[in-house]
Batch of 2 targets.
Target 1
Amino acid sequence: MAMTVPQVFDKRRCELGEGPLWHPERGQLFWFDILGKRLLSRDETGARQWQFDEHVSAAGWIDRDSLLIASQTALFAFEIETGARSDIVPLEANNPVTRSNDGRADPFGGFWIGTMGKAAEPGAGAIYRFFEGKVERLFAGITISNAICFAPDGRTAYFADTVERRIQRQKLDDAGWPEGAPKVFVDLSRDGLNPDGAVVDAEGCLWNAQWGASRIARYAPDGVFLSAISIPARQTSCPAFGGAELKTLFATSAAEGIDAPADGDGLTFSADTGITGQAEHRVKV
């Protein structure tokens, strides 16, 4: 694949960069520093940032001017220009142990969101789906929810519990709900790799950021490893496709737990891939 060397997209160091989202109507990337409790972006005016009083981790787009944001207590609508927040539904609001983590809009207008213990307490988290105004738990006993993404056919979802080192494939019914039990898509345990955030391109191939390995790996729809790109950050956390033709791969990273961060640790990167991604789905609220 014809890919350029990853370049720094944004120099602001994130303690835990996560949840990159390319807003297709605005042509703008948004991402989070979960531990810094902030949403970041860049537009024609330069760097932008919004500070919160709780952990925020993932987003979907509602319309041109608003996002659905997942926090440690709720899913809420966020007005980009005014910073106004309007809570939609609670998310483990009465559980002080957990916070939100990885999430993504599904092809049906729903939003899948994972939670986890703030100190990665074993089995403290879960994966939920927000759909038609309600939140329903899909999978329980999750330690570190990650890799939530969807195939172009609209009938396949992926997710991972990072500590298990396996990416799961889940069949969906015609309303986007899980049908049957998940099956292992890729087992990374033998290679000692840790699956973090993931995204699926227009060809149905899954791109997975692998925490601690300084890379994003691409897997065919049958789970066969195809290639990997090196990211100049030790803890690459999540990819997203964007740019005018959806051929730019963005990647967040984290400086969390690194005593002496190198130049790239915690920064956000971009690379031209020559491969087309999927436009992020709109969330219906």
Target 2
Amino acid sequence: MDPLLASELVENAMNGSAATGVAAPPADVAEASAPLQVDEQRIDGHAAPLPLRLYHPAGASGLPVVLYFHGGGFVSGSIDDADGAARYLARAVPALVVAVGYSLAPDWPFPAAPEDAHAAACWAAAQAHRYGGDAGRLAVAGDDAGGNLAACLALMARDRHGPAIAAQVLVGPMLDPSMTLLGDAVRLNSDLDEATCADCYRQYLPHTQQRLHPYASPLESRRLGGLPPALIATAECDVLHKEAEKYAAALIAVGVPIQVSRYGRVQHGHLRDHQPTLAEAADFLRRHLASDPRGAAPPPSCCPECSA
């Protein structure tokens, strides 16, 4: 598909109901009040042990699995920041949600964080069944820098032949380290600005050439085919929304199914806990992680952790 036509399709999606902040209805009362079991785990990462926090409806089995990556510009944040979104998705999908704590710059610059993300996916593929999860139905999600890691993990899993990822949810993602598509913070009334983004990327990608690596900048990838369906949620009052929507257009151009929404009058920092955004994400994940009546295929053995 012509990239210009793909951009038009994204712009048309922006003019739809989701662009005004209207999304799928919230989960019903029964789902919202379901008791959750929360477990803590630590696994080996690329540079250091990684903390995981697993959320799942108590006593449930055969649940789809959602890996969630927190925000913080690659330099801050923790699994605590993912708590609200993880709890919501665990109840509303319902799913086994694994919040992943990954290595942070400047102590651990690129490629530590995306390698940690892949290690977490391999662990989930091998161990999700212990917590009621079905690793044959695996999705990735994240906000801010976590949205970048979710997108990059989809690329890595495709390139490394697993684990198979069925869907990706990118919430206000940081996708363009070159910052050529960054919006005007003052005009947009954005709570995120160019100086903050530049400082984060300077610490995460200390070598200029790293900013062209597709596992750091998905927008730089020339091979976007074969990626899983994506929901890309952006905020009107966010300097990042243009780059996220360009990525949506690039995915459309190669035939990847896309759902894209820009939420009006919402700032970057509010998007991850924005109720309509969460409701749309839950609806998207429910549809793309629905049980296959023919039975789920066993997860691929992409690494020692997957085949354990």
